[in-house]
Amino acid sequence: MSRRPLLVGNWKMHTTVVEACQLAAAIRQGCADLPEERDIMLAPPATVLSEVSHIVHGSGIILAGQNVCWGPQGAFTGEISAVMIQGAGGNAALVGHSERRQIFHEDDAMVNRRLRGGLDQGLLMILCVGETLEEREGGQTLSVLEEQLRAGLSGVSIAQCDRLAIAYEPVWAIGTGLTASGEQAQEVHSFLRDQVTLLYEKNVADQMRILYGGSVKPDNIDQLMAQPDIDGALVGGAALDAASFIRIMQFKA
Ligand code: 13P
């Protein structure tokens, strides 16, 4: 089963309009001679989505929100909706990022509500899951992930799964320079794929893209992408440097 690789740059709370436009323009240029067909997605801050969308227009780069609220509009101070993302030129969103879970206390129920809202409104969604260092050291990695996946996907129909990807981001590897080894990540990705089979069916699991995130860099992307169940990467720090992200987009598996 061949799954089209998906490389995502999550810019987190970085870039002013000017910086975002420069970065997006450089990445767009780097897309021109990618070795083979692969999907590139950028998740800039909401404040620059519209400007970035003008810069990447026609390049095939997909634009995503870093989070999304469930309703189309309303009294939700500080939130953005799928309709607003679409209006700014995006068609995708992340949910359940560990920074949302840990710093802003979003629980599985809220992540699920966001995910279903985004899917219902037509977005391509990435559900992020991942264990903390404490959970890994306590031998709870797989049970934590199983629960995040089960609760996160609750009420998501089989038909919606073709607009869904999963990102495995071990919390201990985010921004720390510690990366899961290819084998460590493969073990978890294969587990997650088995869980998708249990929740849906094998065909859905075979087609589901499962991305790895956590200190992905130019010097480890090739070994990560060589793993059979790693279908892409969700990149933070290295996505803010055009040359690094371009090398990641050009991974050789
Ligand atoms: P880093 O690549 O900076 O570790 O961040 C990973 C991440 O959280 C991407 O969403």
Automatic annotation (TrEMBL):
PROSITE patterns hit by this protein: TIM_1, TIM_2
Subcellular localization, as worded in the UniProt entry: Cytoplasm
GO terms, molecular function: triose-phosphate isomerase activity
Listed transmembrane segments: none
Gene3D superfamilies: Aldolase class I (3.20.20.70)
HAMAP family: TIM_B
Subunit comment: Homodimer.
Protein name: Triosephosphate isomerase
Source organism per UniProt: Candidatus Desulfatifera sulfidica
